[in-house]
Amino acid sequence: MCGIFAYLNYNVNKERRYILQVLFNGLRRLEYRGYDSAGIAIDSSSENPPSSSPSCPNNSVISPPPLVFRREGNIETLVKSVYQEVAETDLNLEESFSVHAGIAHTRWATHGEPAPRNSHPQSSDDGNEFLVVHNGVITNYEVLKETLVRHRFTFESETDTEVIPKLAKFVFDKANEEGDQTVTFCQVVLEVMRHLEGAYALIFKSRHYPNELIACKRGSPLLLGVKIVLTREQKAKAQGMLPEKCDKDDNREMNPDFRYWPHQGEELDPTKGQINQKELMEGDCNGSAFHDDKFLLKNGHPKELFLSSDANAVVEHTKRVLVIEDGEVVHLKDGEATILKFDNDKGKHGGSLSRPASVQRALSILEMEVEQINKGNYEHYMQKEIHEQPESLKTTMRGRLIRGGSCKAKTVLLGGLKDHLKTIRRSRRIVFIGCGTSYNAALAARPILEELSGIPVTMEIASDLLDRQGPIYREDTAVFVSQSGETADTLLALEYALDNGALCVGITNTVGSAIARHTHCGVHINAGCEIGVASTKAYTSQIVVMAMLALAIGGDTISNQARREAIIDGLFDLPNKVREVLKLDQEMKDLASLLIAEQSLLVFGRGYNYATSLEGALKVKEVALMHSEGILAGEMKHGPLALVDETLPIVVIATRDTCFSKQQSVIQQLHARKGRLIVVCSKGDAAAVSSGGSCRVIEVPQVEDCLQPVVNIIPLQLLAYHLTVLRGFNVDQPRNLAKSVTTQ
Is 586 exposed, middle or buried (0-12, 13-18, 19+ CB in 10 A)? Predict the structure, then answer.
């Protein structure tokens, strides 16, 4: 969805040109979230000091109006227009700022069409006294808007966001009218938050509070990045040596090397946020003088601070981050980050705006490299992520599969679940809850979980569960599956399940996400950063994690031992099988060239591969913008058969499993009606599924039936990718879609 980004440099001289580049690059890193317009706000000048203005209450100090740039379209359109406007106004790009606060935003339209007036930052008035960038939806904006209109505020946009800066100005003006005491920026923002309903992540910038930023959130993701800038002398002092002995460059970031969540060996519970407190200075100059978070957040040393919806926009600057929790307000001022906990029940006290006490939070270290968010030698992120799957699956399984010795059984270790396995095994039922691709991954894993655990497993689409207020019991285990860990409907369903007393398990790709923090236990899929909107490697890693979940819950009963060991052997060999199926790339490209002009595609699957049919159809739908439908093959005669003719392309998934003979029957019936068939089958089965060469056959390696969906989806991912490229569409940012759906 929308992406928000901010950059504040404190006691670090940066030219306006550099500040613009940081903001633009931050937005580029957020492009994959989906957007239709973008904007930024920067300070107009460092040479004009703040002054008293007769137009402001009590002649309060106010800085020159910030510069706001907003454009419909992509980020490069914004960049071009900014530099064009700069040239026309003779704005000095070389002007240096020792302290500066800039904000930026990519908008995914929810209220009002894509247009500059609806883009962010949204402003309080013509003088830009308060500016806001926003990710989320304010559900009571119409009521707030009516109130503000009665107080003679005028609105220019159709957005729900515009009420926020105008409400901030109203609160500020009202507070200054009521008394001589100066109202603080935090007090203004906290009072605004008390009136807002819905989900949001917000960053405030104000002329009344120059060089300050305030960030707050409820529901939508937001994090703070901290980059300490040390001079050579400071580095030397930290290590008790002379400056000449520490000959690293000035203005380099302290780069501690400890893990937020281990990938190998004994795992940690992701909800407990355990951190190895080892610290290393960058390069060869080692030391631990700056291990205290208070040094990072509360000192006046030179630093650069970043606020972002996503770690992708921060990792190239720093790995030291604070994941902002719901209800927290982060105030950046004078090189310090103050964290307050918002309490909606605490309103005004004694006629003045209240300020809650500050709280202490620990910083985390991102386990991410810049290389992970670059395309490398690939043309598109989706292409890169499809071909990364052999390695991403290895990473998912690393440290979790135990082969055992001659006397020991093969087993699975999921550290994040080990303290809760007994409770899960006693569950009345297991409920998988997710949306889109994550739902499909859970559906693929349902049969093996039922088989090994003997526990009934039900499936719920998060939004539908909420709409129905479906029953969730204390005896249930609710498993929440989300790639981002921030999916709005899934988070609301999690809140609903927690309220009903269920044990809540999270499966996510994002350490520190809302699902990882708020579930009782969980498993991080370790698939690596996924930029393309259409999920590929996260889907296959989710299936593998849920297969391991089934093995862990199923225990080591003798009756299931042979089956369990066969699955574990299959998991070990799975990356090689995926590497083998990726060799079909050119074959799928050739097939895509034959389907380029088609308007519709049907995909039939059953058993484990019903989920494959849904996911394959979803991929084609998402990126190639072709109507496609995944259909349970057992339902073919109950309506879908009416669509079959010689022109409609139909994919049938018929790999070897207990449903193979039934799929053979489906193929025969479709062929009898002159269906245009494309059959995915196991190697060596071409003759069994295509008598007389009547259909196009795609042969894939055979693996254990519960792992077959991982292999079978690869050709359909490749087909969707090549179809999209050949049809000339944007494969990484498909029309109208966003990577992380953080609004309902």
Answer: exposed
This model's pTM is above 0.70? yes
Sheet containing 122-123, strands listed edge to edge, beginning at the edge strand earlier in sequence:
122-123, 130-138, 198-206, 213-218, 328-333, 336-341
Determine the Cα–Cα distance for residues 167 and 251; give it in Å rounded to an integer.
Answer: 40
Query: What ranges do the domains of the chain cover?
Result: 3-47+62-228+295-345+355-370, 381-556, 583-732
Q: Measure the CA–CA gap between 496 and 518, rounded to whole angstroms.
A: 12
* DSSP state for residue 690 in the 8-state scheme: S
Helical ranges in 454-601 per DSSP H:
462-468, 488-499, 514-518, 537-554, 561-581, 585-595
Whole-number CA gyration radius for the chain: 28
Sign of CA dihedral 707, 712, 718, 720: negative
Rounded Cα distance between 579 and 584, Å, is: 10
Per DSSP, the three-state class of 531 is coil
Q: What is the DSSP letter of 704?
A: -
Which structure tokens are listed for 5?
Answer: 């980004």
Matching CATH topology for 381-556 and 583-732?
A: yes
H/E stretch holding 204 reads: strand 198-206
In this structure, which amino acid lies at residue 704?
A: E
- 3.40.1710.10, 2.60.120.10, 3.30.70.1350, 3.40.50.10490: CATH of 583-732: 3.40.50.10490
- pLDDT of 710 above 60: yes
Is residue 504 flagged as an active site residue? no
What backbone phi and psi angles, to 5 degrees, belong to 204? -105, 140
What span, in angstroms and rounded, lies between the C-alpha atoms of 12 and 546? 48
564-616 pLDDT, tens digit each:
999 999 999 999 999 999 999 999 999 999 999 999 999 999 999 999 999 99
Report the CATH number of the 3-47+62-228+295-345+355-370 domain.
3.60.20.10
Specify whether the CB–CB gap between 112 and 159 falls below 8 A.
yes
Fold classified for 381-556 = Rossmann fold (3.40.50)
Tell me what percent of the residues of the chain surpass a pLDDT of 90: 59
